[in-house]
Amino acid sequence: MAGWVMWMLAAGLLVVMELFTTTLYLLMVAIGLAVGGVAALIGWGVEWQLLVAAVVALVATYLLRRSKFGRRTKVQAERDPNVNLDIGQSITVEQWQQDAGAAGYTARVKYRGAMWDVELAPTANADGGLFFIQEIRGSRLIVGNSPGQH
């Protein structure tokens, strides 16, 4: 079996493994292996094939890490809608009460069959009406005027 075929089979195996892991890093290594296969097809020596494959895989991994697909977004669990399905749900607050000694507004609201303490987010307006849950701190809902304010 020719050397370039081995490189391409290894690249194909990594692509299949990447489909199961969905990390994209195995795909970058597969690109390096495919370039190593091209180097073998051209007739370069084994040492150059290995060097080209390693350099391309490292550069591709570096570029992926610098792109928006390689960055991890850190969201606190109390604000993450993937952790808590109540984030982004709407509630209606009829009237806000200003806290004595504090600059914030609070209210008591019935949500999902129970009474909850609700706190107005610092950027939200204290008018009565429809609000969206942005964060949950213990048994307190932090709400804002629009669903996209996290």
TrEMBL record:
In terms of superkingdom, the source organism counts as: Bacteria
Record flagged with keyword Transmembrane helix: yes
Which residue ranges run through the membrane? Answer: 12-42, 48-64
Q: Which UniProt keywords apply?
A: Membrane, Transmembrane, Transmembrane helix
Q: What is this protein called?
A: NfeD-like C-terminal, partner-binding family protein
Species of the source: Collimonas fungivorans
